[in-house]
Amino acid sequence: MIKFFRNIRKKLLEQGKTINYFKYAIGEIVLVVIGILIALQINNWNELRKAKIVENNFFEDVLQDLKKDQQRLSYYKLFHTKRAGYLDTLLTYLRNPKKTMGINKFQQYVEPLYYSASATNYSTAFESAKATGTFNDIEAKDLIKELSQYYSDFAQIQNNFTSITRYVEDKFEPIMYNFPEGKMNKETGKLVINEENVQGFYDKIASIKDSRNITIDYEIILRTPRMENYLIGDMGRTFNTIGKIQSRQEKLKALIQKIKQRD
């Protein structure tokens, strides 16, 4: 092709057609420029297409993580809602001396309070994209900003869970030191909500015969001011945690909707 154009220019010069030569040369330059522009446009289109594929893959992975988060948050809400109910029941009996719950029911309602939920956040896709610089290829910068804030806010959930765990260790467990573990039976863990199956533990404890004749008035433990202070303190922390969980659920729902509607 280059040889073909060269021959045309040569013939025009040999024939003394200088003006036609310059016209032709200009036309050739224009064609070259147009060709370059077309090539650049095609290259830009390919780059945009690749970036769009990267963006789509990223948000698909993020949606999978967010769906896992949804399930996790539902578990957290159930866990703490049940906890608040147990605390409410114990406080109700504590403040009504004429009501007697019995030692077995007492054991069932205090046992779940020993357990806490572990804070887990699903952010694999987001953290991976941040580490590899994928965000540079994503146009939806506002969504990236919202995702970043969403994952940063998870620290609030962690802090609430930690607060409850420490409060149990510092306030609840010392109160329960005087309550004999020998009173545990197969029904003791009936109200426990936990990701792991803990029933085997209670079955094992119940299978070990206790020949001691230990008696204790559980109401002495239940109706102490320390127990009341603990129940109120734990209830406050638990309700605060439920509020944080619900707020995160609302943000999560809005994020999922925005990601699905971004196109």
Which stretches are low in confidence, meaning pLDDT under 50 for 5 or more residues running?
Answer: none
Which outline best applies?
elongated
The whole-number mean of residue pLDDT values reads 85
Distance between the termini: 44 Å
Query: What is the string of SSEs from the N terminus onward?
Result: HHHHHHHHH
Describe it.
The protein is built from nine helices and no strands. By secondary structure, the chain is mostly helical. The chain has one domain (73-261). The model has no long low-confidence stretch (mean pLDDT 85).
Any key phrases for this structure?
263 residues, single chain, 73% helix, elongated, 0% strand
Secondary structure topology:
Layout: H1 2-14, H2 18-94, H3 103-110, H4 124-132, H5 141-152, H6 154-176, H7 199-207, H8 218-222, H9 225-261
